[in-house]
Amino acid sequence: AQSVAQPEDQVNVAEGNPLTVKCTYSVSGNPYLFWYVQYPNRGLQFLLKYITGDNLVKGSYGFEAEFNKSQTSFHLKKPSALVSDSALYFCAVRDPFSGGYNKLIFGAGTRLAVHP
Amino acid sequence: DARVTQTPRHKVTEMGQEVTMRCQPILGHNTVFWYRQTMMQGLELLAYFRNRAPLDDSGMPKDRFSAEMPDATLATLKIQPSEPRDSAVYFCASGIDSSTDTQYFGPGTRLTVL
Fold first, then answer.
1. What is the pLDDT at residue B100?
2. Statement: residue B81 has pLDDT above 90
3. SS3 at position A36
4. B25 in Cβ contact with B9 (< 8 Å)
5. Does residue B84 sit in helix, strand or coil?
6. Which of B43, B99, B105 has the CB atom closest to A101's CB atom?
7. Do the bridges between strand B65-71 and strand B74-79 make them parallel or antiparallel, or are there none, so unpaired?
8. Which terminus in chain B has less CB density within 10 A, N or C?
């Protein structure tokens, strides 16, 4: 079955420190991978996506993610965390059996808490 | 700054009542997705439209839920009759038809069924 796992329910980081939010996937064929962020009482906002090409993808708000095919991972990273980065982060992968449209399978989400 | 809009933002209703949620996709987008978010189930895809046609509603309870796009600027999700287990946040997202398109989410409708 196609799936996405976010192994950590919550990640705590001190402001200014680097952050990593983990994501692993299981999907047939070449994966199309996405990261979204959800602030309280808001909809999901697109951060970045990997379709093909360079394994290091740069996105919004200084975030980047590294695609690692051998480890089937797509971890989200940022060199220096801000308190304003505190939010719920979702990893998603396109369902390869969706019949041609971008049907996303979302992970359960990881809550990032950045402390001053 | 183009955004997906949803109304109402909050809805409290009693069991058995009809609920209608509305979504205005970003102008020029031709795909619309409806999602439901709960603590227990996370994000679930309910329905998908392309060029106003429903192409996938396999995630939607058929007996009480219905989704339509009367025109390109309006998508609706109806629940009739509503039940307490329908309490959730309902998101609409829109995009441009492709196999890799980015979905842009609205702010959601928080539904509480008493």
1. 75
2. yes
3. strand
4. no
5. helix
6. B99
7. antiparallel
8. N
Q: By three-state DSSP, how is residue A61 classified? A: helix
Tell me the C-alpha distance between B104 and B86, whole Å: 23
> Strands, DSSP E only, in A39-82?
44-50, 56-58, 64-68, 73-78
B99 interfaces chain A, CB cutoff of 8 Å:
yes
Task: Output b/e per residue, B8-20; b: 16+ Cβ within 10 A.
Answer: eeebebeeeeebe
- Which among A51, A101, A108 has CB closest to B50? A101
Which letter, b or e, does each residue of A77-100 get, where b requires 16 or more Cβ atoms within 10 Å of its Cβ?
A: ebeebeeebbbbbbbbbbbbebee
The conformation of residue A59, written as its DSSP 8-state character, comes to -
B45–A103: do the CB atoms touch at under 8 Å? yes
Instruction: For residues B28 and A76, give the distance between their C-alpha atoms in angstroms, rounded to a whole number.
Output: 30
What is the distance between the alpha carbons of residues A86 and A41, in angstroms, rounded to a whole number? 13
Per-residue pLDDT tens digits for B1-36: 689 999 999 999 999 999 999 999 999 999 999 999
